[in-house]
Amino acid sequence: MSGATSKTTGHGRFSPRKGPRQQRSRVTVESIMQATLELIKKDGFAGLTTTKIADRAGISVGSLYEYFPNREAILLSLYESTSSRVANVARNVIVEILDMPIERGIPHSIDALLALHSTNKLILLDMVTAVPELHLTTHPISYDSLMRSAIATYLQNFGVQMSSKELERRLFFLKQIVMGCIRQYLQHPPSQVSRRDFIEDLSRILVPYVKEVATQR
């Protein structure tokens, strides 16, 4: 690893030095991000250094440091961009199921979320445990916080009338059930539970709960 790992609890030290304003700068930043992704797919997080990233991106370390102060800043930017991109897809899924019966909408959304997490597992799930100093679970642009917003949108579509405290309670359980089950299934896949089983059984848990919430007026 190049440089000492930060002990700072915030994200200040991990912020990019500057944003890419010109086309050439955007290409450089994109090449840095892509090189980082390729390296962690190949070798994991432990041996990742700014020198390796720069070599992979075809630029000098000095050029890399113009945009990012350290490898943690690159990883954080990669996490933010991935979270935002995946959350946009998840929001589109929510829009798709708004007019579906709950019995159809819930399995459809679980299927889509499982696919999104499976495709982006390295960044959304593995990075959280591999680089704990980034405090990704509490990051404002964490996927969890964006998913909470998407679930709230779904519930509000039913015209649910409840206090803010009650809504927060419902959102807490729905998010924890959905995200917790998906994480566990992808990180520690049980041999006796197929993908189809996972979607069907989780739907059996969620459909009655969502129906009960949807009938509150």
Q: Which terms summarize this structure?
A:
217 residues, single chain, elongated
How big a fraction of the residues is strand?
Answer: under 5%
Q: In total, how many beta strands?
A: 0
Give Rg in angstroms: 20 Å
What distance lies between the first and last C-alpha atoms, to the nearest angstrom?
A: 56 Å
Q: What's the quick description here?
A:
Helices cover 68% and strands 0% of the residues. By secondary structure, the protein is mainly α.
Report on this structure.
The protein contains nine helices and no strands. Helix 7 crosses helix 8 (164-187) and helix 8 packs antiparallel against helix 9. Helices cover 68% and strands 0% of the residues. The chain has 217 residues and is mostly helical. Mean pLDDT is 85; it is low at 1-10.
Topology, element by element:
Layout: H1 23-43, H2 50-57, H3 61-65, H4 71-97, H5 102-119, H6 121-130, H7 143-156, H8 164-187, H9 195-214
